[in-house]
Write a structure and sequence with these properties.
This protein is an alpha/beta fold and 340 residues long. Helix content is 31%, strand content 24%. Strand 7, helix 3 and strand 8 form a beta-alpha-beta unit. The longest helix has 20 residues. The radius of gyration is 20 Å and the shape is globular.
Length: 340
């Protein structure tokens, strides 16, 4: 016996990826509904060898459905997620709307699976920000061994993190470089993204950080440990898919780089590729389509007593969004609903 699943926002990048991953991981689906806004009504999407037509989110009745995977913006989520939850359908939300709600668990299954039971307060589970998701997968096993005190992270985030508009803008601007007659002004981003990097993701806050940077701080504390100090600089780079992060950690106890490498190799969701030779590391292009979070360049930080550096790469449309949502659905099924 399987589950009745709803994918909300099925025509977007993340929604389509959710459908792909549900099929790839053979999630026990008895029935599936794909929803979109009225302007996308009737658009066809693929689920395995099936072609599904989207239904109207506004008119959909969530009663009798087990789980709804939401991949729409915060405004639509604010209107429809409580409606689904009230109908008895557990919402797994990819927006930022509920991440900081103390009554909504923020879940990365490899990191804090036991928090799943907190879903019952609102019948909603939050999916973390894409840049946070891959980082906490790497941090948690090291924190368990040596207790992390402080994290300094610089991100190199692909344009797919800003949706289809960002991907189109990079593509169009790149073409315009070679055809100067056509100029493509920035719309999605504040400056030209082609052949450039932009140290600005989301809005600026009063302290000079951006909201993306604040999200990494707040979410890491909620998912792993509120005592961890985190400082982040988030940068958009001209890569279509795949987020990269340079992570520096300071631990309470000394952790040798070789032991850290061994711990990470044995940890769920992680693949270590760390050879000190040309090409002995993973780049974002190589992680596209993969489920894993890849760790490379593990080395001691000699400027502090208990410091490590590492390079972390993951497909942001997968682990940073769609895959993590499906993993939450799997966890919910295994630990709570127990139908599949």
């Amino acid at each position: 016996m399987g589950y009745k699943i709803v994918v909300v926002g099925a025509t977007g990048n993340v929604g389509r990826e959710m459908l792909n991953i549900l099929e790839e991981r053979e999630f026990p689906v008895d029935e599936i509904a794909v929803l979109a806004s009225r302007r996308s009504l009737g658009t066809e999407v693929s689920f395995g060898d099936k072609t599904l037509k989207t239904q109207d989110l506004e008119a959909f009745d969530f009663a009798g459905w087990d789980m709804a995977l939401f991949a729409v913006g915060s405004s639509a989520t604010k209107e429809h997620a409580p409606r689904a939850a009230a109908a008895g359908c557990v919402v797994i939300d990819n927006s930022s709307l509920y991440r900081y709600d103390p009554d909504v668990p923020l879940i990365v299954p490899e990191v804090n699976a036991d928090a799943i039971h907190g879903y019952s307060k609102k019948n909603i589970i939050a999916n973390p920000n894409c840049s946070t998701a891959q980082m906490v997968v790497a941090l948690k096993p090291l924190h368990d061994r040596a207790k992390i005190k402080r994290v300094v992270v610089s991100t190199y985030q692909s344009v797919s993190g800003s949706g289809k508009g960002g991907m189109d803008e990079l593509w169009d601007q790149t073409k315009s470089i070679y055809n100067p007659v056509t100029e493509v002004a920035p719309k999605t981003f504040t400056k030209e993204i082609a052949f450039n990097v932009i140290p600005h993701i989301d809005v600026f806050l009063d302290d000079g950080s951006t909201k993306e940077e604040w999200k990494m701080v707040a979410e890491t504390k909620k998912i792993i440990d509120p005592s961890i100090k985190v400082t982040a600089t988030c940068v958009r780079v001209p890569v279509f898919v795949g987020h990269s992060e340079s992570i520096n950690i300071e631990t309470e106890d000394f952790l040798d780089e070789d032991e850290a490498r061994d711990i990470l190799r044995e940890s769920p969701g992680i693949i270590v590729v760390d050879k000190r030779e040309d090409g002995g590391y993973v780049t974002p292009k190589e992680c596209v389509g993969d489920f894993a979070t890849f760790i490379s360049r593990i080395r001691q930080d000699s400027t502090i007593d208990n410091g490590l550096n590492m390079w972390c790469v993951s497909d942001n449309l997968r682990k940073g969004a769609a895959l993590n949502a499906v993993q939450i659905a799997e966890l919910l099924g295994a630990k709570v609903l127990k139908k599949g």
